[in-house]
Amino acid sequence: MMHYYIKRISIFFIFILASSPFSFAQKMWAEQTKLFAQLRNSKADTRRVDILLKLGRYYMLREYYVYRTGNPKSQLDSALHFSDKALSLSKTLKYEQGKNEAVILKADAFIRGQDMGSALRILSSLQNETRFRLLVILGRHYLFHIPRTPRAKSHLDSSLLFLNQANKISPVLLSDKLQPERIHVKAMQSFILEGIHPSIKIYLELISKINAPGNEDREALLWHELTTLIPLREKTGLTRLYCFQKMRDLYKRNHNQEREAWVLKSIADIHIVSGMLDLAESELLEVLALYDAIGYRELHHIYDLLAITYRSKGDYGKSIFYATKAIESAEATNDSSSALTFYGQLAAMYRELGQSNKSIEWYSKLLDNRSFTAGENLFKFREAGFFARELVKLKREKEALTYMLNIEAKNKPVGMQAEVSLISSLAFCYKATKHERQADNYYTRLITLTEKLPKDNQVTANAYYEIGQYFISRHQFEKASSYLHKALIESPGTVSISLKKDIYLMQYKADSGLNNWNAAAKNLLMHKQLNDSIFNETKNWQMAELQVQFETAKKQKDIELLNSQNQFQQIKVKEANRTKNILLAAAALLLVIIALLLNRYLTKQKSNRILEEKKKELDEKNRFLEMLNAEQDKLLEEKQWLIKEVHHRVKNNLQMVTSLLNSQSVYLEDDKAIVAVKDSLRRIQAMSLIHQKLYQGPNTSVVFMPDYINELINYLRESLESSTRIVFEQRIEIIDLDVAQAIPLGLILNECVVNAIKYAFFNRQDGIVRIDLMRVSPDRIMLTVSDNGIGLPQGFDVIENNSLGLDLIRGLAKQINGNFVIESHKGVHIKLTFT
Asked: Which of 61, 256, 540, 54 is nearest to 247 (CA)?
């Protein structure tokens, strides 16, 4: 009930806002303003019913074109509100036609809002012509308005079910106005049962029958239905572009600028995909002008298309400018889902410009804590792969591989293109980290999958390029040239200018390897030209950006100056009024004022003398305190230096001990002695790392544990030879420990990890060791080391076992007031809780 009243109140405010003579809505939606004016001046008669129905249909049509023109829920709420009003008044007036139209409008709003139960309840109460109309709406909804490509069979079956029911209603029960709708039903049935081409013929027959003045909106909707049925890349016969152009002509004839702008944007989108970038640019700028003329401000999707257009043309200055405006517009309108897409666009532009740090910044915003849901699965896998490649460019190869492995472990690719994006990224990361065998396996899978990929899309072009790059690294130049050629001939609009530049460079290397010097020279020249064009455009953009910043700063200063002048003027007016009041009172109080002023003057003189003496005294104290502070700072600096020097020397001494033990181990013949020496070396290294962190870091008293544990694990992984591929998973909270805790904890972690590497994965190819360090309460910290290995031997008694490692762990745990527990269940799990 509360939701009902809130919705009614929101509708009331819409009405009031539209009623204002200075309303923003009047500028943008002249039709809406006109209808509201008529509604205000109407009486409770059938004319008011017709106005309410027109308002409801207005909002329904805006929801139909809501792709970039508003909030769908608010449009549907408005349509339901006006349909309810019309229905109630029609029942009071016993106006049957108004009642039928209101019922159809209300059911249509329920259908568009996915409230199918309410719509079907209305359907069960209808007969003859009204039932026919609602059945057509239901059939059309399941065919055109369910957001899924390709159309699901269940939705096609539902559409056909309702259309067949509509077809069973006798033509004699329908008015002449509805007779063309029978052809419409036949056209939709034809598409479901026979396919697109037979359906087109029937649609064109229907359009020719209704083509008359006053039917522009109805005819435009039919052309729009054809745009959703015809494949995007259809180039023969009736094309999607032709249908959109027909829609635009109809809306221009009807003077409907809002829908004309939406259609023109769709036309520009097709031209972008087709590689007709100059035409797309002029169309999108015209869209901005149309929206500006009607006062529409949610322009982020137009800015995004302009950014894509300029990016494809190699004009990265304008591309970044419009991508930034798209983000600003999306964030200003709280369109968070669109903003994420725009983050990816801007990250890609910086990636193509070679600005990896900026690219990583925007990819991080896009990918941070985002789940790979079905709707954005491909997009996220592709962007995650680009993010990993940028990390590799910054020499962070291991981080890139770890990131992609984490993505693979937590998310499943949906569809072949998402799978290709994941596999190519893993292949690239393994190659970058010099894991040649794993890289070869993934590249082999990638080559197999690309044979099944659809043509003319960015994922396919990127896959071809990756494979070509791989074959060049293997000196298989003929295969490399073949795949690079495939990448280049993908349809216009698929391959960006930056990717083309890189493909030409790889093609140059392939041709050089084949001794095809002429072709190599041509490809190198193409690479150079594209690279220079990107550089020049970037330079121009930087100059333009500086100019914009200068103009903005200048305008801001002008505004501040005007504000200051205004404030000064106000102050002058206030001062004048105050002076006038004082003069009026001065005649009566002049003598009193003089006496008070004299007394105040004498008192002030006395106070000034006292203050002057105190000021001198304070100045002397301040100088003395400054001198003490300077001496204290100097002493603290010397102390800090001495502490760092101590840590440095301790580290050097430990390094010397390490060197001596290494030298001694060369002369040992007893395997047990050698193992003992190596174990000691690792323990010394665990302590040495702490002292190294202390003298290198800004704080000489505490150790930043995430960095320390990461370096210790890397050292142990490299120092211990193992045939098992072990993955180390770390979940380390940001914790600083003092030296008294860090050294025992490091030695305990050393013992646990070494035992896991040595004994946990006997006769196994791979394994996982997980290290967790986290606060379990404000004053308690827990270290957990777990593996998924073979576990402890059966009958192994932790308490009775007196190995050096266990004794060392017990002693160190006691030293830091810790509780030490070992469990064996699907591997060994060691938990240490300490204060």
From this structure: 256
